[in-house]
Design goal:
Layout (H helix, E strand, L loop, with lengths): L13 E11 L2 E9 L5 E9 L4 E8 L6
Antiparallel strand pairs: 1-2, 2-3, 3-4
Amino acid sequence: MTKCPRCGSTSQVREWDADYFTESKYEIVIVREYRCGCGCHFTGTTAYRIDGEEEIEEERPYENRMD
């Protein structure tokens, strides 16, 4: 479950967009954009490897703007 970096909520966070990238034939990277009910927008990056291991690489807030 994704947690908002500003308010800590997990129930208000919604995935807004996702981009998929192939790093190699053994790895796929997904960059997801999230929005929280408190107004915070943030991204998270996840790498999936062929060995079945999921690794969260980065979760960082970005400019809070209402689109």
